[in-house]
């Protein structure tokens, strides 16, 4: 049986590490697919659990030189804050005298440089002790058949250390005595190791603290809550709460579990869960969601879902999985990283040989070669795509949009055609009064009498009329002897008024005049008569949602075509389309018809997004390039779709498409930054315009610039 599992990977230093783990795993016949995300430090593996086990897969990863731990569906814990370790502090301390010496050389104070044998001692501490993690990673990488960044750093620093040591002990004293040696370069290895280690720390800190949006969601979970036990209220840690417990949430406190309000009332802010900025009113019988903030009032609710089984928990696990997935564009970085390090080593060797022969200066040749090795770190390349994906996914979740994976987000960025279901997607999904016909002119009286009779019926049209009268604040007269005439309507006696009929126009003896608004041609008609004398009528129809028209306008403004495909009657679909400014609208379509129409659009070169919420939408959702389902719709639609919209709002769809476009744009920018550093840096290093120390700093800067650009997505405006 196929099983999908996620692992947290430890010890990766660049994209080549991720590629190597992928290569090793995908060679196994019992593994269907394996993907490793360098930015999230996570592997997603689909395997046959009848042929292997999770422990076996962990063992395979460990044999490649990396740590692995299974990620469960339990709520993730807040990652510990990244602190500067003793190794980095020691490296910093050792780098200080070398930095002072180099500064002295720049101003003509060569005496600031520490003595050669002290340089050797300090460099030995770095190369033979502090740099050991680099060597271990490099050796494990080479054994695995792929070379990572640490291979480049190790070769370069060991070469300079060995050369400088040989010159110090075996060359004539005068050779290294000039300016403390134009022939010894201990500072190169020390400072490159220092800069690279600092870069790794900053990179790790940025990834943990800035890219991952799980920390935001974790803050929505209260550490402790007020729980009623044995008739007494007591404060308990969240992990001691049980299903069925009664929990109190006061003003300013977070909801700890999905459940139902037992008593009290107030307003809850659920914006981080649904994307809806307006607070929701809560009273007895209302649903509450874990993570919601009580912005006003106080409630007592019964816990029905806890931890990972809540909507918040499901969202956190879905986000973690989606952020750990790989977008198709990441294949470019993967392919490049696989051949990058061997290519760089070849360039470095060629630089050493050619520079040595042409310049007749093998010391200079060595420095040029080391600079090539150091500047060419592929870290930025490995971070370019996943860093942007992680930020983009987090931004989407904040807007109430849940993408299943990175591939869906990337595909959404290319969408130029949107296909929309009508009922429940563009419209409210329930009838409401859109027009009233009152020859006598007393509209309130028409509402009052109709609602008084219709409150004895259960038809959706009847409920819509009663609700409309209540919204107007009308007092309904008492009725008696209410009787239903099946298929026609309902009648009842009202004291002081007479016998009131409500139902079809024929039942009430009403003939509508010509020249009424076109809505009367498509809507459901409910007439009212008193003592068989027609009093008036209502037109009821499924109305567009309040934000549908604005959302369609936003889609058109961004060059995205819109189509309505519905199973409803053509005249009804056309009316809704005209209300929203949609020119392509087709009614009377079966689920198979919708799927075929989507396929036809794709065949015509369109990149299609399908939006729906019902079982009948599932075939079309599956046929589209990318698909969006409404939260709370049919399960089959949700499982088929590429993403879920938490608000039942087309505006959220527009947000989803714009976020995906911004994310893809950011990925391309990151890839440009990553490539330009190497495209410009390697030739500059090869021709001697970059010394190894500056190359080490530039290499660290390349990763930081990519991460910084990815974090710009958090501030990107998508309201247009």
Short structural summary:
The protein has 26 helices and 24 strands.
Mean pLDDT: 82
Which structural class should the secondary elements be placed in?
A: alpha+beta
Radius of gyration: 34 Å
* Percent of residues in helices: 40-55%
Uncertain residue ranges = 174-182
| Bulk shape | elongated
Tally of distinct domains = 5
The profile of the biggest β sheet is: 7 strands, antiparallel
End-to-end CA span: 46 Å
The total count of helices amounts to 26
Strand content: 15-25%
In total, how many beta strands?
A: 24
Task: Give a structural overview.
This protein has 720 residues and is an alpha+beta fold. It has five domains: 2-71, Alpha-Beta Plaits; 86-212 and 326-389 and 665-715, no CATH class; 221-310, Distorted Sandwich (Calcium-transporting ATPase, cytoplasmic transduction domain A), CATH 2.70.150; 402-426 and 545-646, HAD superfamily/HAD-like (Rossmann fold), CATH 3.40.50.1000; 431-541, Calcium-transporting ATPase, cytoplasmic domain N (3-Layer(aba) Sandwich), CATH 3.40.1110. Helix content is 49%, strand content 21%. The chain has 26 helices and 24 strands. The strands form four sheets. Strands 5, 6, 7, 8, 9, 10 and 11 form a seven-stranded antiparallel sheet that branches. Strand 5 (224-229) and strand 6 (232-237) form a beta hairpin. Helix 4 (116-130) packs antiparallel against helix 6 (149-170). The longest helix has 37 residues, at 650-686. It is elongated and about 120 Å long. The protein starts with a strand and ends in a 9-residue tail after the last helix.
